[in-house]
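re: ur question from the group chat, yeah i did fold both. here u go
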Amino acid sequence: MLELAGLERRLAGMELSATLDLEALAELQRDLLRLKTDALDRFAAGELGGQSALSDLLLPLNAARDHVAGLMLHVRDNLEERAESEGKSVEALWDAAIDKAGTGGGSP
């Protein structure tokens, strides 16, 4: 749960920034998926107790994951609008945003 709280703090920081960094959102999504997988593995190994303990862990994880997915869709919507106004494909702008974020340049 402490690791989830750290990820939620990262998410809040991203939301408060001037632009949403696509690669940072994707990284956060991967981290949330890893936490969910870890929780399911621990549950399967009998380390978490009953079904209610698993639900208590998965509920906030799934909510955070859904929130990140919503932010990624927001970035995609912005890219679609930009692509239309610039006469480019969304895929080209998406790839450029990922490349730019991967080199530390931020997102569009």
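okk and heres the other one u asked abt
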Amino acid sequence: MAGPDEPGGCEVVLQNPCDYPEAEEPELGRWLERLVAELAPGATSFAVRFASDREMRRLNRAFRGQDHPTDVLSFPGETTPEGRHLGDVVIAVPVARRQAAAAGHPAARELRMLLLHGVLHCLGHDHETDGGAMDGLEAELRERWLPAPCEAEAPGAGAGPGVGDA
């Protein structure tokens, strides 16, 4: 992942303690770095943890009072003397897999959808209180960053804006 001194300037850390293969895809980290660079150009760090249902259930209970796993939790960061930490996102990969199967698309696409959703929350958007503003923004960004599956099958497609630009 890019470090704070590299182009984009944001250190993106991906934790995958359960070794989920979908979260090990090399392009996923590069895609996320580009997404964060575009949406949060001043961020210096961002972290993602790919979790089990058990871990997500525990976190959801502790932070939201809901005793079941959810797909994604976001914890917005703050500015410190070291820079602006965009935040931390936790994704339950088993939930993402089930949602992907129900939607008829690959789990890798679902992870990107959840990462986009989590980044928007870390930027301060809240679909539960904003009257649909976040949903509209997320739909626009999905069109650009997550092309339709048939388009994603083309070589180089699905990587998001900026790929191949010199």
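fwiw on the second one: The chain is about 45% helix and 20% strand. The domain at 11-152 is CATH 3.40.390.30 (Collagenase (Catalytic Domain)). idk if thats what u expected
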